[in-house]
């Protein structure tokens, strides 16, 4: 839990981190981290909902997460986007029904989760496999998803491969694997593979990455996301993504694995996406931000939506007047839509989850 000791001045604890009996040694419980400049109404809402830090063992370390809500109910697994972390849901989840549980995870190499071993690269399908590992760890018979961007692509692939194992799927602003120009793939990999190698060897050298003032980190996140993450919302992501420099007082560095910058998607074409779309038979909600790119020719999005509407009567599509990180910057626009969907399709499941004992 060392990264919590490096919290920047803009973020503070509501209450203390305390050890909880009858839960794993690596599990703690706390009040939500809040940005001190947020309005008091939001702080009060967050204060009323406890969140528990959890650590899930995997062969290369552990997956970190935040368990919101009751511990005797199987949670809705909430997956973040590329180079983000579980903090991306810190403002949305408190606005959703409190009798439901949510488990916001840090993907490997993100947030407080372990990195994959040296010499390896990140791939989307590895995250699909990770979902199966987590189901096995908790002994869940089924899983439910609420996911953003890269996480939404992972939840779509998992749901289409294992439709009978998924109660419902909520996707935010990334509908499916995007279609890129085949003619550009070779040159793209020609650049990325050597870049992966450089990042890998830098990790092995274990030298401290470049550090910045906190204000610079906020600006880098703001500009790096093309202003999708506002400066006011940035602390929610930075909280799990920075460490205080040991070399430069009052500076911090990003802790996410730099190999993530050069990860590669699944690489298949639209024909595969459409075949997988036919398997999306569960309740399915997708929210598209109007001020966000489609990251591909829009015709591929429209073609996919048309097919799913024909084959799945439980599919819902909503457009939200916001940016790519709408759930973090303007959660009040999404909460009523998602809550309505959950009230129709969520069912309390106390079976199929493992109760941890000391």
Structural class, by secondary structure, is alpha/beta
Give the SSE order as H and E letters: EEEEHEEEEHEHEHHHEEHEHEHH
Taken from the alpha-carbon principal axes, the silhouette is globular
Strand order of the largest sheet: 2-3-5-6-8-7-9-10-13-14
The helix count comes to 10
Strand count, sense and barrel status of the largest sheet are: 10 strands, mixed
Number of E strands: 14
Summed over residues and divided by their number, the pLDDT gives a mean of 86
Distance between the termini: 19 Å
Strand percentage, roughly? 15-25%
Structure, explained:
This protein has 358 residues and is an alpha/beta fold. 32% of the residues lie in helices and 18% in strands. It has helices spanning 40-47, 124-138, 150-161, 182-205, 214-224, 234-238, 270-277, 298-311, 326-329, 331-345; strands spanning 11-13, 18-19, 28-30, 33-35, 51-58, 61-68, 76-79, 102-105, 143-148, 166-172, 242-244, 252-254, 284-289, 315-320. The strands form three sheets. Strands 2-3-5-6-8-7-9-10-13-14 form a ten-stranded mixed sheet, sandwiched between helices. Helix 7 packs parallel to helix 8 (298-311). The longest helix is centred in the middle third of the chain and has 24 residues, at 182-205.
């Amino acid at each position: 839990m060392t990264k919590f000791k490096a919290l920047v001045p803009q973020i503070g604890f509501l209450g203390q981190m305390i050890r909880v009996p009858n839960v794993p040694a690596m599990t703690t419980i706390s009040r939500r981290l809040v940005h001190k400049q947020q309005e008091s109404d939001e702080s009060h809402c967050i204060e009323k909902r406890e969140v528990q830090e959890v650590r899930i063992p995997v062969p290369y370390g552990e997956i970190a997460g935040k368990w919101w809500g009751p511990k005797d109910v199987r949670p809705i697994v909430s997956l973040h986007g590329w180079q983000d972390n579980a903090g991306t849901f810190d403002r949305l989840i408190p606005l959703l029904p409190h009798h439901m549980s949510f488990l916001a995870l840090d993907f490997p190499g993100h947030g407080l989760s372990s990195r994959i071993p040296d010499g390896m690269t990140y791939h989307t399908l590895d995250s699909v496999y990770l979902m199966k590992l987590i189901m096995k760890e908790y002994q869940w018979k089924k899983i439910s998803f609420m996911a953003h961007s890269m996480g939404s692509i992972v939840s779509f692939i998992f749901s289409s491969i294992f439709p009978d194992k998924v109660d419902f799927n909520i996707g935010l602003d990334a509908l499916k694997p995007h279609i890129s120009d085949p003619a550009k793939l070779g040159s793209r990999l020609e650049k990325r593979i050597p870049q992966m190698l450089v990042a890998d060897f830098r990790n092995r050298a274990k030298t401290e990455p470049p550090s910045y003032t906190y204000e610079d980190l906020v600006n880098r996140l703001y500009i790096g996301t093309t202003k999708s993450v506002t400066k006011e919302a940035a602390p929610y992501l930075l909280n799990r993504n920075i460490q205080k420099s040991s070399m430069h007082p009052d500076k911090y560095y990003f802790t996410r694995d730099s190999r993530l910058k050069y990860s590669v998607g699944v690489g298949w074409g639209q024909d595969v996406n459409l075949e997988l779309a036919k398997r999306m038979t569960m309740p399915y909600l997708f929210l598209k931000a109007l001020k966000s790119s489609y990251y591909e020719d829009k015709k591929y999005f429209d073609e996919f939506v048309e097919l799913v509407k024909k084959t799945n009567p439980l599919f819902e599509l909503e457009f939200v007047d916001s940016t790519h990180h709408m759930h973090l910057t303007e959660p009040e626009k999404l909460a009523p839509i998602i809550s309505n969907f959950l009230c129709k399709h969520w069912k309390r499941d106390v079976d199929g989850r493992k109760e941890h004992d000391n």
